[in-house]
Design a protein that fits this description.
Elements: E1 5-10, E2 19-26, H1 33-52, E3 58-65, E4 69-75, H2 78-86, H3 92-102, E5 110-117, E6 124-128
Antiparallel strand pairs: 1-6, 2-4, 2-5, 3-4
Helix pairs in contact: 1-3
Length: 130
């Protein structure tokens, strides 16, 4: 893990096209763990795959579990996300097809995502890794 810096820093702006991808899930029916547990367990497998295959385009990603379950990730581009999502050899497409067949539109588990291509912005940190 990168050491924290106890100083205020303005972070280096990422290259044009860098994309912030947020994905999360909700569990409207906790008493149906067969639905949400399988979906929840698919995400760490995808993150491991992406970390082992940097050519897929993931720059950084973290899974957060709390009141909501969310992954915050940075990618080289939105096109890299689309390519990964459609790659039959990668873990996403089979998992997505399985989800749609078993759980889509059944209100047992919810999935959402948001994609932002980073443009003009500023990030400032203090006491965080550079």
């Amino acid at each position: 893990m990168t050491a924290r810096e106890a100083q205020r820093m303005t972070n280096k702006t990422p290259p044009e096209g860098t994309t912030l991808f947020l994905i999360g899930m909700s569990m409207p029916r906790l008493r149906h763990p067969g639905a949400w547990l399988a979906v929840f367990l698919a995400m760490p497998r995808m993150l491991v795959y992406l970390k082992r295959n940097p050519e897929a385009g993931l720059l950084s990603g973290r899974l957060y579990v709390g009141a909501s379950i969310i992954v915050v990730s940075y990618w080289r581009s939105a096109e890299d996300i689309r390519r990964f999502a459609a790659d039959a050899r990668a873990p996403h497409l089979p998992a997505w097809r399985w989800f749609n067949k078993r759980f889509a539109d059944r209100n047992a588990v919810g999935i959402w995502h948001e994609t932002y291509v980073i443009g003009e912005h500023e990030t400032i940190t203090s006491g965080m890794p550079p």
